[in-house]
Amino acid sequence: AVVEHIQGLKIGMPTEIFDDSWDPSVRSSIASALAVFEELGAELVEISLPHAKYVPAAHFILLSCEAASNLARYDGIKYGFRADSSKDLDGIYLETRSQGFGYGIKSRIMLGNLLLTSQYYDSHFRKAQVIRRLIREDFKKAYEECHVVLTPTSPVLAFDHDIGLSQPIGMNESQRYTIFANMTGAPAISIPCGFSDEGLPIGIQLMGDLFSEETLIRAAYTFERNTDFHLKKPMLPEVVK
Q1: What pLDDT score does 44 carry?
Q2: pTM of this prediction?
Q3: Could you give the CA distance from residue 224 to residue 216 in angstroms, rounded to a whole number?
Q4: Residue 236 pLDDT > 90, yes or no?
Q5: Residue 214 and residue 17: Cα distance in Å, rounded?
Q6: Which of these, 168, 212, 220, lies nearest to 189 by C-alpha position?
Q7: Which DSSP string do the residues of 94-124 spell out, in sequence order?
Q8: In whole angstroms, what is the distance from residue 76 CA to residue 99 CA?
Q9: Cβ atoms of 32 and 193 closer than 8 Å
Q10: pLDDT of residue 171
């Protein structure tokens, strides 16, 4: 039996996001998910997030700067890992941070420290903060027209782990929409909504206004009660290394 707990729920579809950049399998699954929501009584509403295209760059800058600032405490003295081979204070700092952080984290720390210098603070960090404020205002206006905003969890399909590590651009592309929640500080939930022809999982993300967790959980729960994607498992490759 159909569980109708979302009658009248308005689901926002950002015009700047629903474009041709998605993998065809993602587009097909999202279209099917929207049809399910409509059948359950939800209303689809077109909304606009005019500053959405600037979010990935702003998020990358802010993430690097915050990593440089917040991870400075991990020096081998009070927090976390300490290199045992160190013989003096400088050695503790150097060896602990060299051994304790991976390549990706070291890159973010170095970039973040660079962007926080007087030379780049205004041109990069401050502008990224402005974008964060603007995207928050975009979502605030959107929630005047809808209750939740729907996007794909990822516009691309899952890729080989080793390829993802060697090509950070692809990794960043897969996070293109989930970073909206990080930038706005608002709640979001991701649920399964389909599979590609190769058996790779596809998900949808629902985002809500501040303190709208109840609405998000109700919408996600209703969708899962009326579909079975969350009960299925992705197909594994024929050869698992």
Answers
A1: 97
A2: 0.85
A3: 12
A4: no
A5: 25
A6: 220
A7: HHHHHHHS-HHHHHHHHHHHHHTSTTTIIII
A8: 11
A9: yes
A10: 65
